[in-house]
Amino acid sequence: MKLPDSSRLQFTPDLNICRILNGMWQVSGAHGSIDPKKALPAMFDYLDAGFTTWDLADHYGPAEDFIGEFRRQLKAQRGEAALNQIQTFTKWVPRPGRMTHAIVEENIQISLRRMDVASLDLLQFHWWEYRDSGYLDALKYMAELQAAGKIKHLALTNFDTEHLQIILDHGIPIVSNQVQYSLIDQRPQVAMANLCRQHGIQLFAYGSLCGGLLSEQYLGQPEPGRWDLDTASLRKYKNMIDAWGDWSLFQTLLSTLQTIAQKHGVSIANVAVRYVLEQPAVGGVIVGARLGVAEHLADNAQVFNFSLDNEDRTLLETVLNRSRDLYQLIGDCGDEYRR
């Protein structure tokens, strides 16, 4: 299996990435146990299939450690040059409070050590409390560490449009913002995407499969109860579906997705991911990787073998127009974490 050129994005002058990023929240423990002895070989499978870009965080359990060990094994088996084939994007999610250069550098050093890198490809920063302006101090110090070579590129995760603008007004060089974005949650279309297009910022979308709910597995099925949903992702995105509409409307959406999927000879998940990939300012979609448990490499590759046409989009809009407005209910990107 070889992914087509359309699977790649020249994200920055020095980083050419896969537009489907391997999400490592799934190794955090909230989705069941992961066996490192199976996970590491699976990471080689992802690389060899063309899925070279990893999304992780300092608080995703052993995710940064997995990257460090993967890098060491990759170098030992294929030589140091092979390390240039992978891109690893981590996050820093500190508790709000006073930020100093020493505090920021100490935390960045932890990620550098765990991931076994001299410089972080991309550091995606999250801040819980906007009333605490320490996020601007943290970003200022991160920019200094970027200038010192500890970080290649600065990014955000779950920032809203207003505060992204504030950060840009302070001269902080942001290259991406990671946000929830799916057929169910289209809040980035309201304001975020336009600001990102104006400033050449890419959006990385997560939740695009609603934890697996946007799949054939749930088509024609009765509404699951909380205890039927055995991962953190399923529980989280079932709540989002409940806010968006109801199970009946969701079934209508799944039926529509199946019609489109059958037309293109792909899966429902492929259509859901493709829809988000085709939205303005979206650079990539993060698809969870349950390493050594469930691999969907061949299916994910199909995302790059078709495009949605006007008929497909009209069918989807007919259903989506019947849903509630999550921007009005929840607020802008990331506001669900700050209410």
UniProtKB/TrEMBL annotation:
All copies of domain NADP-dependent oxidoreductase, residue ranges: 19-317
InterPro entries: NAD(P)_OxRdtase_dom_sf (IPR036812), NADP_OxRdtase_dom (IPR023210)
Signal peptide: none
SUPFAM superfamilies, per the entry: NAD(P)-linked oxidoreductase (SSF51430)
PANTHER family: NADP-DEPENDENT OXIDOREDUCTASE DOMAIN-CONTAINING PROTEIN, PROTEIN TAS
The protein, known as: Aldo/keto reductase
Organism: Leptolyngbya sp. NK1-12
